[in-house]
UniProtKB/TrEMBL annotation:
Superkingdom, taxonomy of origin: Eukaryota
Protein name: Bet1-like SNARE 1-1
PROSITE patterns, alphabetized: T_SNARE
Protein's cellular compartments: Endomembrane system; Golgi apparatus membrane
Domain T-SNARE coiled-coil homology: 34-96
Segments passing through the bilayer: 105-123
Chief place of localization: membrane
Lineage of the organism: Eukaryota, Viridiplantae, Streptophyta, Embryophyta, Tracheophyta
UniProt organism field: Stylosanthes scabra
Record keywords, A-Z: Golgi apparatus, Membrane, Protein transport, Transmembrane, Transmembrane helix, Transport
Membrane topology qualifier: Single-pass type IV membrane protein; Single-pass membrane protein
Length: 124
């Protein structure tokens, strides 16, 4: 064979390998890029699911807080009204104790004892 032709064949073979390697590298890069994009899309979907879950949870927490605030407001109002009733009752007791009537005092103490015994036997 002609040395020139043999040299040319070697050069063609040498450059063909480089071009194929370049093409292979480019296709590997493209495939890797597609894989990275696919991974990114999956990660974004996962994050989107987590964000929507957190949004629902925060909405549920807000509803729970609002319901507890309403309940506490009602309890506060009930306590205020109970305080008013208790204050009126205490005023009546003061009036009874100020009269110093032994008969009224005896009746009051006896009624409390009877009431206590009735409640005690009913709750037992």
């Amino acid at each position: 064979m002609n040395p020139r032709r043999e040299n040319r064949n070697n050069r063609v073979a040498l450059f063909d390998g480089i071009e194929e390697g370049g093409i292979r590298a480019q296709s590997l890069y493209s495939s890797s890029h597609e894989i990275d994009e696919h991974d990114n899309e999956q990660a974004m979907d996962g994050l989107q699911d987590r964000v929507s879950l957190l949004k629902r949870l925060s909405g549920d927490i807000q509803e729970e807080v609002d319901s507890h605030n309403r309940m506490l407001d009602r309890m506060g109002n009930d306590m205020d009204s109970s305080r008013g009733v208790l204050s009126g009752t205490m005023d009546k007791f003061k009036m009874v104790f100020e009269t110093k009537s032994s008969r009224r005092m005896f009746t009051l103490v006896a009624s409390f004892v009877v009431l206590f015994l009735i409640v005690y036997y009913l709750t037992r």
